[in-house]
Amino acid sequence: MQQSKKARLRARFVQSTFLGGKKTPQRRCVGCREMKDKPQVMRIVCNADGNISIDETGKAHGRGAYVCKNGDCLKKAQKSKGLERSLKRAVPQEIYETLTNVISMER
Ligand SMILES: [Zn+2]
């Protein structure tokens, strides 16, 4: 009995040290300008041809910008032109519309 308790404590130690210590990648939202865990943000990517799209896989090549999955951040990003600044080009209105749709679907 004593032994199994010790083993449990050890397992917890290993988990917090080696697994819990591993950081979730963080990305800066262009709306609120805060660092967020990657699953909380959407990635907008500008490829080599200059086409802007929403990167649902998170693995597309190109320059990426991130915005939280909420309407407030998206509005802020649109108003401050944070996406434009990050991607260094104009973001079509459709992109904002699609992002709005994605957010409403997530809810
Ligand atoms: Zn945000």
**SSE string:** HEEEEEHHH
Largest sheet: 3 strands, antiparallel
Q: Please identify the structural class as seen in this structure.
A: alpha+beta
- Which range does the strand content fall in? 15-25%
Taking pLDDT < 50 over at least 5 consecutive residues as the criterion, the unreliable ranges are none
- Shape call: elongated
Strand order of the largest sheet: 4-3-5
- What integer value in Å does the Rg equal? 19 Å
CATH class: Alpha Beta
Number of helices: 4
CATH topology annotation? Hypothetical Cytosolic Protein, Chain: A
Average pLDDT level? 89
Ligand roster: zinc ion
Strand count: 5
CATH architecture, please?
2-Layer Sandwich
What gap, in angstroms, lies between the N and C termini? 47 Å
Helix content range? 40-55%
- Within CATH, the superfamily carries the name YlxR-like
State the assembly state of the protein chains.
single chain
What is the total domain count? 1
Structure, explained:
There is one protein chain. The model has no long low-confidence stretch (mean pLDDT 89). Strand 3 (41-46) and strand 4 form a beta hairpin. The protein has 4 helices and 5 strands, in the order αβββββααα. It is elongated. It has a single domain, classed as YlxR-like (Hypothetical Cytosolic Protein, Chain: A). It is an alpha+beta fold and 107 residues long. The structure holds zinc ion. Zinc ion (ZN) binds next to loops.
